[in-house]
What we know:
Chain A is mainly alpha-helical. Chain A has helices at about 5, 15-50, 50-60, 65-90, 90-120, 130-135, 140-145, 155-160, 165, 170-220, 230-255. Chain A is built from 11 helices and no strands. Chain B is about 70% helix and about 0% strand. Chain B is flat, with a radius of gyration of 22 Å. The chains are: A mainly alpha, B mainly alpha. Chains A and B meet through helix 2, helix 3, helix 4, helix 10 and helix 11 of A and helix 1, helix 4, helix 5, helix 6 and helix 7 of B.
Amino acid sequence: MAEARILAEQFDDLEQQEETATVGMWTFLATEVLFFGGLFVAYIVYRTAYPEAFAEASHHNNLLLGSINTAVLLTSSLTMALAVHAAQLGNRKRLLTFLFITLLFGFAFLGVKAVEYSEHIAEGFFPGARFKARSSVMADQRAETPPGFGPRQSSAALEWARPSESGRGLPQSKTLARRADRISGFGSELFFVLYFAMTGLHGLHVLVGCGVLGVMFWLARKSRFSPRYHTPVEITGLYWHFVDVVWVFLYPMFYLVAGRPA
Amino acid sequence: MKGVMDKAIRAMRFSQHEPRSSRRKEAHSVSAKESQSLLTSAATVQAGNARSVASANSLPVEGRGKPAPKTYFKIWLALLVLLVVTVGIARLNLSPFNTAIALLIAFAKMALILLFFMHVRYSRRVIWVFVAAGFIWLFIMIELTMSDYLTRGFAWSQ
């Protein structure tokens, strides 16, 4: 391909052009870090508030499927890196193969995620009016003011502040069970709000990544890349690996909260 | 503004055009196994003005030192081992340490992906600055938010 067509006029040479694109991509990824960052902060805040509920709710997530998906994404990162390497060498056939495999892994990830989502929805863990953990204790909760930013209270003080609970002659164990239930009602719904928001946003990124991989595949088929010019493949690689990094954190956050029952 | 950025980036580039460190040399020796990159790496390593040589001879941009497939496979294996370890540890009940260990492993995985798959290890410092920027601001956001919540008697369920 003629140099004039791949070198934009504002650059001295291809190397400068590639470097500029790489820096630009990292700038974009920095904004992505902060985009997800807001949700990460929300997660940290509410997990601090409801540690037990988060641990309990996370045990409803399918550890096996989550781990498989992690392995799928990590492997897709390998094939993406190999695709970039093939592009550097100008090996078109290998580039096409690895782009295609990476694309397949992306769809496999989304497929497993879809199975997980449908399981959650069937079990009533989708946040909203039909949220399962809440509906059983709904009546209890309605009377209570939602927790706020009050002064720190010890659990003893909380018990004391709610005589209606321990004072009605309910057996102690039942009271405790109901209290735990209510906690998991608030906290576990928050857990699943964050779960669906964060994995949903991540899934959207995977979907976009698949689209970009498709475009790269199409361009590679048209022999648009050479050892001298393959910046788009490298940039796509950066994006794909970044999405992988996000999942590397989502996975322990939503599947490995505390010592899981074996 | 553009001019300033340009100057900065170019200064970065020229100052580091000679193989900056043993790392880059090592990367060269790895990629040299690939027949095509042999010539390129030699040209790039040889002299400070390799850039102009490269463009004059229309040599590929490659050869600036990217890891070989063998390295990628090793990193991938390491990532899978870390995955197995983190699942195993999550099944034990180490109450206060579960989260810390899971996070530690996640950071290790992130480091491997960033440094090798995303080539940060082989990139110029200007890339390091941009990588660090995102995480530093994220850290500031988490730190300031939590220093607020944690000092205001934030204990809803306890």
